[in-house]
Amino acid sequence: xxxxxxxxxxxxxxxxxxxxxxxxxxxxxxxxxxxxxxxxxxxxxxxxxxxxxxxxxxxxxxxxxxxxxxxxxxxxxxxxxxxxxxxxxxxxxxxxxxxxxxxxxxxxxxxxxxxxxxxxxxxxxxxxxxxxxxxxxxxxxxxxxxxxxxxxxxxxxxxxxxxxxxxxxxxxxxxxxxxxxxxxxxxxxxxxxxxxxxxxxxxxxxxxxxxxxxxxxxxxxxxxxxxxxxxxxxxxxxxxxxxxxxxxxxxxxxxxxxxxxxxxxxxxxxxxxxxxxxxxxxxxxxxxxxxxxxxxxxxxxxxx
Length: 304
Ligand SMILES: Cc1cc2nc3c(=O)[nH]c(=O)nc-3n(C[C@H](O)[C@H](O)[C@H](O)COP(=O)(O)OP(=O)(O)OC[C@H]3O[C@@H](n4cnc5c(N)ncnc54)[C@H](O)[C@@H]3O)c2cc1C
What we know:
Layout: E1 2-3, H1 5-11, E2 14-17, E3 20-23, E4 28-29, E5 35-37, E6 41-46, H2 56-60, H3 80-92, H4 106-115, E7 126-132, H5 136-142, E8 149-152, E9 164-166, H6 169-172, H7 175-204, H8 215-226, E10 238-243, H9 244-254, H10 261-277, E11 286-289, E12 295-298
Parallel strand pairs: 5-9
Antiparallel strand pairs: 1-11, 2-3, 3-6, 4-5, 6-7, 7-10, 8-10, 11-12
Helix pairs in contact: 7-8, 9-10
This protein binds flavin-adenine dinucleotide (FAD).
């Protein structure tokens, strides 16, 4: 079953402010006040900002009969990422004259780039996303993608007050598994707090392996040890920056039927937000709903 992306974006409470799409994930609390989330949150933090007018002096430097300056009069605006990649691609053949592909035919231009595997053109547009409501297991899979750049919460630096957990979809759908999840995260949060307390006491009594010169290092020595009791379902917020070629590969690998469900839910949301941010560069993807109610994302132009 093919689904319309706009409908799904809205149904996941997606919102957008001037091209910066967001799919929010609310925080829930267990009876013992332990925070947890049950879906990935995605925030587009940054996207390309194209200086098309900056080409003027460069284009002016060529034979006026080539009419390269008409490039700046294209009446069809493109999203900045697509415009940047199109300029980069058109520099290759100096396609700035009246016979060039106009922005109105951007889809044809990019389908050609994608189908011919000239994906390096798509490396110019970078997007930075904040990803949250995802577990440490998911981020361990995410960081296998070597063309993505990461900054992730440090479990050595941050304290138990910001500890949150992620409930897998399987547990949400079953009362018994949900109750066990709640019990488990309350136990994990308590165990972490008790262990931190005990380690601090040992530090204060002068145990050498826990000692340090600096205050920050003292705290790290305690937390780097106490984190060993945190489960895979601990939340691990992360900022990821990548170019469009790398994001596309991530979406294709992880929003597929073969991918694990939690990372698939993440890749779906990443796709929906990037599609909003730049409809031209991601418009070849289609959504399909599987019999279990989850979604996959497909394209005929894989691994550009
Ligand atoms: C369904 C699924 C199951 C998986 N199961 C396992 C598992 O059981 N165990 C496990 O360890 N991993 C597993 N992985 C992770 C997988 O093996 C890859 O590490 C991960 O998907 C990153 O993708 P990639 O290898 O395409 O590389 P990326 O890092 O995303 O790079 C993108 C592309 O760049 C090129 N590239 C990058 N680095 C190099 C390089 N050094 N040399 C040559 N070309 C390069 C390749 O063409 C590559 O496809 C699984 C992934 C999926 C999607």
